[in-house]
């Protein structure tokens, strides 16, 4: 599209609004502002094109913002307005044009705490310190900050942490690109980051049911995408409960069944160990008990060992190689108390007298995805049974 044509016909530039939906009540809590030229041309390329003069972009953005703010005031629904701004344009706004516009509209009834400024992760390549201070300044006016995480660089995780945005946006295209390759690790990292900095998670560009399911599973606070609602030329304030709730109900029922099945595994494994407990001869003679456990867990496990409450391994490793169990002495007397969650899990087993099933994690030796089932065999000794990847893969409830 010819930028000059856009500037000569600014009356054809109009805002469109993409609804953002609450994950808790399925209500529209805000709209992301986009620009259209006429009825058929989105202005995304206009704003991304480095050949378009910055003053053109600033003028079009100002008109779109003012039109949107007029609509927000008329609508009177109190929802948020999400706007895109590049770091460069924000940093070059020496006259504080954006703040002056917002201040004028605050007098007309649009509170600044309803505005969300979105910055892209790749914008961190600009002067990060200056951007950080500027966004802190905006926050003093009540303006919310959102960061669009594109997965561009893992080093940006720390920069996002420093910015402490109110909202962390995750592009559903990240799900498509990594669905079979590290998705769980990526989602867990972003989920943990959001929790640590107190940011809400917003999944955008949701175009299919399975992307909505991933967003739900990893704790998204907000959803956005054409699968839920398409951009419109007017503000949408109605609830989307009728269209979203059936899908979420299906996700819940499916997850409940997986959890129920996983707990059945846990109960069955506990019973097996309890049946072996009469054969326990104490910490001084662990190997016989270890062999019995290997027979009982021959299908599920590839490695079994025993530790005391301080983390010291009191047995050899019972290791399955070529479908046969072998006792390997090298790990005996190792101390595993430094491992994440080890001492906490031992104390939980000691206090409750129940077994525990770990989350999935990559085994250091095999590099495969495994889980560990652990159980107290006495008041100060515990058995650890590593569940093989092949068994986990064959049982979906153990994969999630």
TrEMBL record:
InterPro entries from the entry? Answer: Cyclic-di-GMP_PDE-like, EAL_dom, EAL_sf, Sensor-like_sf, YkuI_C
Q: Name one GO molecular function term.
A: cyclic-guanylate-specific phosphodiesterase activity
Q: Which Gene3D superfamilies match?
A: EAL domain (3.20.20.450), PAS domain (3.30.450.20)
**SMART domains xref list:** EAL
Q: Which residues form the EAL domain?
A: 1-245
* Pfam families, per database record: EAL, YkuI_C
Q: Which PANTHER family match?
A: CYCLIC DI-GMP PHOSPHODIESTERASE PDEF (PTHR33121), SIGNAL TRANSDUCTION PROTEIN CONTAINING A EAL DOMAIN (PTHR33121:SF82)
Q: What is this protein called?
A: EAL domain, c-di-GMP-specific phosphodiesterase class I (Or its enzymatically inactive variant)
Q: Which organism is it from?
A: Salimicrobium halophilum
């Amino acid at each position: 599209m010819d930028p000059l044509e856009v500037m000569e016909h600014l009356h054809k530039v109009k805002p469109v609004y993409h609804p953002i939906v609450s994950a808790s009540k399925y209500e529209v809590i805000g709209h992301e502002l986009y620009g259209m030229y006429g009825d058929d041309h989105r202005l995304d390329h206009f704003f991304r094109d480095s050949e378009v003069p910055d003053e053109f972009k600033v003028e079009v953005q100002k008109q779109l913002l003012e039109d949107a703010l007029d609509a927000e005031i008329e609508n009177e629904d109190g929802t948020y307005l999400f706007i895109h701004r590049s770091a460069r344009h924000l940093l070059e706004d020496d006259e504080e044009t954006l703040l002056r516009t917002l201040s004028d509209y605050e007098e007309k009834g649009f509170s600044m705490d309803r505005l969300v400024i979105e910055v892209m992760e790749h914008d961190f390549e600009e002067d990060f310190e200056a951007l950080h201070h500027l966004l802190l300044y905006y926050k003093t006016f009540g303006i919310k900050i959102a960061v669009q995480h594109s997965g561009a660089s893992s080093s940006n995780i720390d920069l996002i942490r420093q910015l402490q945005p109110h909202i962390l946006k995750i592009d559903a295209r990240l799900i498509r690109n990594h669905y079979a390759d590290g998705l769980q690790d990526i989602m867990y990292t972003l989920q943990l980051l959001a929790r640590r900095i107190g940011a809400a998670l917003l999944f955008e560009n949701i175009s299919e049911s399975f992307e909505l399911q991933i967003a739900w599973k990893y704790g998204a606070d907000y959803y956005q995408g054409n699968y839920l609602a398409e951009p419109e030329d007017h503000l949408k304030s109605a609830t989307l409960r009728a269209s979203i709730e059936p899908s979420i109900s299906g996700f819940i029922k499916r997850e409940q069944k997986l959890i129920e099945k996983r707990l059945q595994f846990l109960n069955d494994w506990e019973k097996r160990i309890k049946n072996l407990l009469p054969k326990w001869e104490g910490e001084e003679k662990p190997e016989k008990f270890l062999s019995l456990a290997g027979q009982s867990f021959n299908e599920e496990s590839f490695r079994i060992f025993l530790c005391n409450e301080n983390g010291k391994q009191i047995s050899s490793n019972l290791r399955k190689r070529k479908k046969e169990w072998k006792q390997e002495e090298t790990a005996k007397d190792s101390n595993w108390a430094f491992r994440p969650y080890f001492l906490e899990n031992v104390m939980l087993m000691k206090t409750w007298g129940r077994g525990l099933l770990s989350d999935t994690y990559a085994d250091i030796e095999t590099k495969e995805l495994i889980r560990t089932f652990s159980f107290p065999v006495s008041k100060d000794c515990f058995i650890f049974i590593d569940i093989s990847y092949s068994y986990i893969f064959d049982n979906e409830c153990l994969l999630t």
